[in-house]
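Retro notes
What went well: the complex prediction finally ran end to end.
Inputs used:
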Amino acid sequence: MKFEVNGNEVFASTGGRPFDKKKPLIIFVHGSGLTHMTWVLQTRYFAFHGYSVLALDMPGHGLSGGKSLKSIEEMADWVNDVIDAVGYKEASLVGHSQGCLVTVECTARYQQKIKTLSLMGGAGAIPMNPELLNLAENNDPKAVDLMMDWAHGPAGHFGGHPVPGLYHINTGGMLAKSRTIKETLGVDFRACDNYKNGFVAAKKIKIPTLSILATDDKMCPVKEGKKLADLIEGSKVDIIDNCGHMMLLEEADRVLKVLKKFITTNYPPLNS
Amino acid sequence: MSDKKVPNPKTYKFDTLSLHAGYQPHKNAGSRQVPIYQTTSYLFDDVDHAAALFNLERGGHIYSRISNPTVGVLEERVASLEGGTAALATSSGMSAIFLTVMTLCEAGDHLVVSSQLYGGTVNLFRLTLPKFGIKCTFVKPRDTEGFKKAIQKNTKGIFGELVGNPGNEIMNMPEIAKIAHDAGIPLMVDATYQTPYLCKPFEHGADIVVHSLTKWMAGHGSSMAGILVEGGKFDWMQNDKFPTMTKPYEGYHGLSFAEEFGPTAFTMKARAEGMRDFGPCLSPQNAWNVLQGIETLSVRMKKHCSNAEEMVKYLMGHESVAWVSHPSVPDHPDHELAKKLLPNGRGSMIAFGIKGGKDAGVAFINNVKLASHLANVGDTRTLVIHPASGTHSQMDEATLKFAGLSHDMIRLSVGIEDIDDIKNDFEIGFRAARKPRLVSNQ
Amino acid sequence: MSKNPETIALHGGDYRSDPATTAVAVPLYRTTSYQFNDTGHAANLFALKEFGNIYTRIMNPTNDVLEKRVAALEGGLAALTVGSGQAASTFAIMNVCQSGDNFISSTDLYGGTVNLFTHTLKKLGIECRYADPADPSNFEKLVDERTRCFYAETLPNPYLRVFPIKEVADIGRKHNIPLIMDNTASPVICKPIEHGAAVVVHSLTKFIGGHGTVIGGCLVDGGNFDWTADPKRQPLFNEPDMSYGGAKWGEVVPQLTGANVSFAVRARVCLLRDLGAPLAPDNAWGLIQGLETAPLRMKQHCSNAEKAVDFLKKHKNVERVIYPTLHEGDIAARSKKYLKGGNGALVGIEVKGGVEAGKKFIESLKMFYHVANIGDARSLAIHPATTTHSQLTEEELLAAGVTPGYVRLSIGIEHPDDIIADLDQALNESGKPSLKAVG
């Protein structure tokens, strides 16, 4: 669906069900240079099972208007604005990669509104490889190809998408190339590289939190993910083996199973 | 731009993908070879799981008409080789074309189509689709401007074979892609004759690629199969030409394929609607057979192409041959374009004219011993046919001319046998063709 | 040739042994193409002056054995195999209709066929009009000058009301409109062609295959319909086809073959050629294996189903049982008239307690498989409200006869005691209070 935030049009997938304000809200925040489509195998499930879902396209990404936001802090505030804009007082947040930085910062800032926080492939900081950053800022498609290479685990490099017929490395690549690379991925990478507040923000979080990490994640390794999780009181950690950073595609079912249990326990659905 | 310090992506290359893509042994009992899932149906974990599959909430298999794990490996493998995002395998190349058209068009729509096509495809576009309200305008493949002029308000796409059959005329794919994209419509390319080893049409602007996998991709001539592959770049939401992709679809709780699946929307719709309703599914056994073929695609294509170039030289120097058409011939009108679009080889389809016209053609075909006379191309074995008396004999005179055929034309699909054996066999055919004939074969 | 299905299933058609080797078992011709004898042979084949193998998309010797055998079983003259039952339904309609035409279908229909007819064929300009088969004259009311065929299933889910084949076929013949019957659920026990149907289609995946390993479909041409009697009614059989040098199919096929098989030939040489949904020879071979035991299996399916029905009728947690013999009046009379030697393997039940009880019943079954299929030798069950029909709104559900507690059973050929024992324990579970809901 489309709605307005701060004067710009925003697109969010509602997971194939009408947006229903009676149901509890889950917001999904995508990673650098990507779009709402990375969440298709998680969002549709929640939308069909008692939740309202918004898989956002960040400003300047996917089908959303406006320009890409330049810092994680701005993005965190913007996610909070989304909650207000759709007329909710609270929501659960789910983030992937850069989306983890955004949701951690957002939760720390707006603790009273956020009911649960789920992080996939998250870390307290995501410093960028300078060459990769340089390529993205120079609009070089090689930046996307390298990201897709590093973001997929060894198993993921062979494919084996849960949806028959889909080849995920190319699908992810095409998503990241769907708009001007320097204006999406370039800006996002710089924002990740600049963000230093992750560990400080994490210490402030007092709500139920889950970190899903993957054994073959080269971009946010398990060690880094655990470092972040350790700072969050009572945080749960789940580790998925044989899987890389793109866990939400590479192991969609296993991710969904863990996520489902965590969210439905801590933020129950509205069963009609 | 990329300086030397930057590593190159280590995603797997073509020859590796042709052996590995789409399959992970650790998820399949460790079996190194892809298992053949000869099953129609799949057990649901519970009622929720079943509903989730029917609602496209989760990936997985419901029923082998719609998807099958063995067929799925083939789909991913071809998508990976083409550099595409997704693929849907079908029970023949023709059904891949049919499903592509059905996913894009409905009654009242129009397509711009290259006039140099496989005879079956010509019949589909020229005679069968109009019965279902879909009209086509044919344009000669070299008439790049003609494609632009033929586009109407209700045109939903451009379709062509990269190298036209049987005249070896090449479409200027990058320019025609630009024409299509300027008009907000996709370019669909049948790349059966090239396979992704010779050309990856997505790199030159195509949006959908279709294959008859029956041919070079499988190579063995044992199994019928087809596939449609999606490039993932085309923006279906840029205009209002594709309401069935962008507007809520009644059949799935108001799902919009373009919004929900973006770079894989076309394949998702082709499967969820076209395959579900029209049902031209590929059998798992055939999918496995094609996978066996694809394992040797690179090595076979190299030999096909080198044998073809040898045969071109041989035929050009032969006293019984009037003319030879192959993009490797320097005075072929598309010689330069072929170098650009087909850098790894110009393919193994040769057309040549035999001196002595139709009768000589008939005598040649009836006397070769090694080359097989049959209605197929892209077998590992050398195949010959005389279109005027074979594949195209069902066409009226006008259609024959329209398809660019002449009575002396022999179509040759060069195999991977020893080149000397092929040449020796042709000598037998030419000798018979030169003999005075007592009985005319009219 | 024998009239007995047990014999036809093993010997039907003209296959005795392989002409090349005298092998008795049907050889699997896993090939795409066929060598021509000479150029004259090739030209004759392409011009349809003689029949023979050209290319496996259009015909294959292994498929040919299956085609002739199914044709014999149904009492038809010729058959055409295709890649799935859906492809068979698609071909059946597209072989007689073009854009601007309409056809009339029974409202009792498999969900996949409803999607094809209501949504997808509409996009090609072909209109499906639905008639309630309770009163056969409903078909006649919808006929106009562009109506090309009638379509129905012999034994349709979910109501399992047997279709009035002869009644509707007779109406059709008055207007030169052929009746196409989907006989997927009732091979052997019903032969629609004997009752006046012009064409029979099957999903061979189901009872004919029986093993649940292969997807396939076929069209059987009854050879009993005059396609040329009213040329305006059937333009595709009476107007010149430019893709075959102006052939008029209704005339040229009987001349060429000596048989009235225009429907089957046109579907083969035009639709398989252009739309291309061939059945793989491996699958044809797998289906021949299944067909050999189909008559024996049908007997066991039917007798097991009847035992299950007797049991279910008495169970306290079953609200209602749906089975062809349990209807009343005219509808019950149709079962007697059209079904011989059994009443099929399909049984519907309404589990007491609505959606939740239906779900619980399904999840408690131990031997029955929870899959989206029917006609397997194994017993199968599905709860449409939460699975196959979950894409429909509540109104659409009720219109399709899918009530919240409705469960569709396809009774297999296991020992009847085991079938009943599994149903019994799952029904008892379905009636227990759900612990989750309480705690």
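What we learned: The first strand of chain B starts at residue 86 and ends at 90.
What to try next: split runs per interface for comparison.
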